[in-house]
Queue: 4 jobs
Job 1
Amino acid sequence: MPDGHLTPGDAAAESESLWRLADLLVPATDRMPAASSVEGSRKWLHYVLTVRRDLLPAVQRVAARVSEDGPAVVLRDLRENDPGFFLSVAAAVIGAYYMNPVVRNLIGYPGQEPKFASSAEDGLGDDILGCVASRGARYRQAPAEPTYSGSEDELCSDCIFIVAATADRTGRA
């Protein structure tokens, strides 16, 4: 909301009706907070709806229905009669919940981190490249000029493999 205007994603993320339904999808437990009570929950739902704009119409429609019918009725109806909309709303709400750093911290998930293999414990023992070292060096000089003139008879075996693999995927060579 950089210019002070409420975007559709902001409006959906701020909808109290939607958060009543979200708390049915992700209720509080003895160790975890409900969807609406996590600090920053609205910010993360807005993020989800910004990145996944295809979910926004479902979330808006459901938020409007909750205002009229109540969250339990809407949730039950969606699960039974409109599973596509149910999955869209669930994906937005649950995705935002688990993207939230507060929730990630509570479940002990720091997010994706680089992991560098550096020891025998990581599978990098001294013998990992033993078979390569034992066969000795292999080097083939690349030709200075391309040797393929366009004739199928001149295709090297590597080129035939590439053409065959391409034909498998595309149906044509």
Job 2
Amino acid sequence: MALSTRLMAGIMVDSQILYAQEENLLAIDPFSEEMLEVASYDFRIGQLARYHGEIVKEAGRIVTLGVKESAYVQSLEKIKLSNRIAGRISIPTALVMDGIFMSCGLQIDPGYEGYLFALIKNEGPDKCDIELHKTRLFSIEFHALSMPPRQEFGIKRQHKSLPSMPNPNLGGRQ
């Protein structure tokens, strides 16, 4: 199946992201026009798990990430990619300037379906407030592929929920 001329291989701009959604090549749920950028889409933090075991998911809740404190996060939005689109993950500059670092896979494989997950850490000199369902964490650049991959996405590697937080006193996962 050839790509439409509206969706040529390469980095997708806002109109192509919208077109891919119309053609069911890409799904973002919930989708917000406000999160659509010129050549990317920003995903917000939906849930956050802290070291002391607390999982926070209430919309509008502000969570303070102390200096050197880490947390696992899950996106608010779910994503579904066809086998003709891949994604690249980065962090919005505003969070980097606040001292927030993110560790996650750098690519979203064609065929991926689910939430996005990352470990974040506050390396800045001050505490940082994160508002659930509002703070943008994942900035996704979508790439239309010139052809579908030979292999299908491996579901066995896919996380479905927040992983358990490692205990900082014990090392490793509990």
Job 3
Amino acid sequence: MSRKKRKAKLCTAQPNRNRPKNINFNQTNYDDYDDTPYYAPEVYQEKVIAKTVEPIRYLTKAQAEYAKGIDYSTITIGVGPAGTGKSHIALTYAADKLRDKEIERILVFRPIVEAGRPLGALPGTAEEKTIKYFTPMLDILEKRLGTGPLKFFIEKKKIILEATNYIRGSTFENCIVIIDECQNYTKDELKLLVTRIGDNCKMIFDGDDSQIDISEYSSGLKDILRIFLTYGHRDQVVFTPDEVSVIRFTEDDIVRNEMIKKILKAYRINKEDD
């Protein structure tokens, strides 16, 4: 066996002894270690991050209140128009908690509902078909964590992208659960999700009650708001602030593009005229 091959074999068998001395473990790039499996768990255990992470910047008062609610309450509901940063704040918060090992997993749920005309049967496995619906979520997580760490967390099932089909009987513990576009979940589906809460679990619902792609009567978002806001204030059932927070975003909170405010206002006026 050549000296080069023997050295490679020793590095694989004894990674700690042969770890390169010139690696900056405060700014490790996970992509560099995709072909050396022993590094990935070691990097995660030492809380190594892929890049310098800046604190979350809140562009509106509603975003700051939303983040405060997430941090303080077990259940947080953010409701409002597109482009207000609901998904961004929730996923960025969860990514930071996972990277800092304050939780064990992030679970992301998104309804498998097509906006507009159906595309028909998609090719691939059930997982390959489902993942297409989570592209916006993956983009946010990749921006916060980096490509390599995101791939690692998904492979290790630290980040799970799910439909609700197989969760009955499950308990969500030591995790943050994000239910995105929850206006397109039915009442029964949201009831199923909200009753999975276990120890050290935070659950975040975000949605836009003006963009419902299923029957408006069936939408679980308005139902869950009524339960927590109306029935929650009656003497029979009292939800405390550390249990439930509800944050309402408005068109003034849109940060994606200033023009969206005008577009949504024009649509609203047009609907009123009809």
Job 4
Amino acid sequence: MDTIANPTYLIQREGSIDGPCTIEQLEQLKASGQLQSEDLVKKDGAGDWSLCRIEFPGLFTQPRTAPASIPIATAPGRPADTPTAEEQFRLGLKYNIGDGVPQSTSQAAAFYRQAAERGHAVAQNNLGLLYMNGESVPRDLAQAEVWFLKAAEQRLAMAWWNLSVLYDESRGKQELARRYLLLAARNGIPEARKKLKLNLYVATVFFGVLIPLVMFTNPGHAPFSFRAAVAVVSISFAVWGGWHNRL
């Protein structure tokens, strides 16, 4: 029985998939500058997409020279073919949105987790979203909170917004939700700014207009001084809330 001695590979570049190519053809593409270390590659008919420099480390390893008095710096404890946290995050993003690869939130979650565990703030936030929405991982709000908080510690504004959404749906955590909403809005998150403006509008109308209007149009048996005091307190509360929660 004949066997295939050399496997063939598919290449994903700028949204298009080329191939199949043999190792020799890949070497020719590399030599002509048509194959880059950050292009995606996988075996034809099997396997997952990977970075070219990860799949074929020898193909992209260039000899480095430097003056004898200047040592070449390398990342301590990390092999040359290990992807960085940023590369792992970008692979996760590709799978999450289906950019040049089949859309797969399970693959995205795997790459996000690798990057998140190495401290990548956006990957931590995106992994938290998967847990909050139950996409390809069991819905787990506690895990979502863990990853959002890790990203928030690095001052990622989108993590503040996601924490505000998470806490707004949790009993007894509305004050935390308000604080994170304010942080996200003041740091330019459009959804947070829109929600904060809506909240301020509702509070202003209720405390600054409706309550004073009721006090003076429906006096009932309450003395004027009492109704006036309630109206003043309500308006003051509306003004204070607008100032305290200003953008």
